[in-house]
UniProtKB/TrEMBL annotation:
Annotated spans, Disordered: 436-484
Protein name stated in the entry: Uncharacterized protein
An example Gene Ontology biological process: adenylate cyclase-activating G protein-coupled receptor signaling pathway
Segments traversing the membrane: 29-48, 69-91, 111-134, 154-174, 212-236, 328-347, 376-399
């Protein structure tokens, strides 16, 4: 145990020696950390390699920039995880860390690959967020990204910036083990109890590692801010679109209900009898024998038909546009949340530096020793080694989220484990019977078309006995409208059934 502070110079030297020898965790404390690290890294490696395999397979069947960006992101995650996995073992053996069998060169190498790959993953996350933003907000397609060289720029910048940022640090020996998180390699001075200057520290060879850490953290922070800003804009765009669609549907529903109530009036019987032929009048399909006049239609019936068509169009736009925007926004937010898990831990370790402050008469070794006696700090070690390397594993759940939803809709009885196994095997998702019914209702049906046409002819014959209506406008040609007749009739029938 350490002696009293009120001691002789010899006792003070003995205390300092004791602090230096015991400022590392004992092996029995390091073993759980190593085990947790190996488990988390193994899961992350499985997740990253699975995403790379699936993205490669998807890109071969249908080339897509998003798949290639995800492949690059997963590759950077894989390199980061591998460096993190071997980091405790490649630390310098001379520092007395448990299970460390490396040297200064191995520490420099693993630190460089770890920091460079982490920065590359940071930039790939940023470019992926920008991609989602352009898809949702600007409605960009593959040709837009290709014409502007988006993919080439993303990969070039993601490789060059980490090299320019961390090669000087590797040359000057900036990458060393961290006194806060044992066996973790980052920009740090060595030995731990030096004052982070060239006079008292063996490493770095030149320069102050604290200044270099700020230089490395500046672009990292800037790219992270851009990533979060783009993700927020994606969320806001999807939210605004959804609210507008919801407001439009409410207005349409209110107007239609009022119109329907008006149509229930007995005075509108003649208008209802002429209802189906009104559509033909609006399309210009029903002409007089000379082709010069058309008949006016009831405003209430016309309004009902217009609202029906609008609701049909609104439903189509919601299923194809709004749903896609919401899915893209959800994916962007989830990728950003996973990235936040990776981002927060290095900043936490950097903020908890244990160097003695100005005016503190304690030595660096004493500060570090007292720091490691706190049980909360040991819990921080466990959480750090558990969650930091999980980005690849968590990204895999985000990447397969939509496929899992489609599998559950296609086969509700399939277990979760079996669904993930089928996804990994690349088994195509079967079309459920419910989807078949929905798609059959959405597609043009010749039988339904013939029935609708017979009803219109019957109503047209009944209408001939009614009083002739005044003309609405001059006639026009029907050229090109007959080609739309099938689809228009089907859409109208579906809309009328849902009123």
């Amino acid at each position: 145990m350490p002696m009293s502070h009120n001691s002789t110079a010899e006792d003070t030297a003995a205390m300092e020696l004791y602090y230096q020898e015991h400022m590392h965790y004992e092996p029995q404390y390091i073993i759980p950390l190593i085990f947790v690290n190996m488990l988390s890294c193994s899961l992350s490696i499985l997740g990253s390699t699975s995403i790379m395999s699936m993205a490669w397979r998807a890109n071969k069947s249908k080339p897509q920039i998003m798949q290639r960006l995800l492949f690059g992101l997963s590759l950077a995650d894989l390199v980061t995880t591998l460096a993190f996995l071997f980091m405790p073992f490649l630390a310098p053996q001379e520092e007395g860390l448990a299970w460390a069998v490396g040297n200064r060169a191995s520490t420099t190498a693993v630190g460089f690959f770890f920091l460079a790959a982490l920065m590359c993953a940071n930039m790939m996350n940023m470019y992926l967020s920008i991609y989602f933003l352009l898809v949702v907000r600007r409605n960009w397609r593959e040709q837009h990204f290709t014409q502007r060289g988006y993919e080439t720029t993303a990969f070039a910048v993601a490789v060059l910036i980490p090299l320019l940022d961390f090669v000087p640090g590797a040359i000057f020996g900036m990458t060393n083990t961290n006194e806060v998180i044992n066996n973790f390699v980052s920009y740090n001075a060595s030995p731990w109890d030096c004052m982070m200057d060239e006079e008292s520290c063996e490493r770095p060879i030149k320069g102050n590692p604290q200044v270099w850490s700020y230089v490395g953290a500046a672009p990292f922070t800037m790219f992270s801010i851009i990533c979060f800003a783009c993700t927020f804009m994606v969320y806001w765009t999807a939210r605004t679109t959804f609210r507008k669609s919801k407001s439009y549907d409410f207005t349409t529903s209110t107007t239609t209900n009022a119109t329907t109530a008006g149509n229930n009036d007995p005075t509108n019987t003649r208008c209802r009898l002429a209802g189906s032929s009104m559509v033909q009048g609006l399309r210009g399909d029903e002409l007089t024998e000379t082709g010069t006049t058309q008949r006016e239609r009831s405003p209430s019936t016309i309004s009902t038909i217009i609202q029906s068509v609008r609701r049909s169009t609104s439903r189509h736009n919601k299923t194809s546009g709004d749903r896609k925007a919401n899915e893209v926004a959800t994916q962007a937010i989830l990728y950003c949340l996973v990235y936040t898990n990776t981002l927060i831990w290095p900043f936490t370790g950097g903020m908890l530096k244990t160097r003695p402050s100005a005016g503190d008469d304690r030595s660096g070794a004493q500060v570090i020793y007292e720091w490691h006696q706190d049980p909360a700090i040991y819990v921080l070690h466990i959480v750090f080694w558990m969650f930091f390397p999980l980005q690849g594993f968590l990204n895999w759940f985000v990447y397969t989220r939509i496929k899992v939803k489609e599998w559950r809709r296609a086969d509700p009885d399939c277990s979760t484990f079996h669904i993930y196994r089928l996804i990994l095997m690349g088994i195509p998702i079967p079309v459920s019977s419910r989807d078949n019914v929905n798609r059959a209702n959405e597609l043009p049906n010749p039988d339904r078309y013939r029935r609708a046409k017979a009803v219109r002819q019957k109503e047209s014959e009944e209408e001939k006995t009614e009083e002739e209506l005044p003309t609405l406008h001059e006639s026009g040609t029907t050229t090109g409208l007959d080609a739309l007749q099938w689809q228009d009739d089907v859409d109208l029938e579906v809309a009328d059934l849902e009123i």
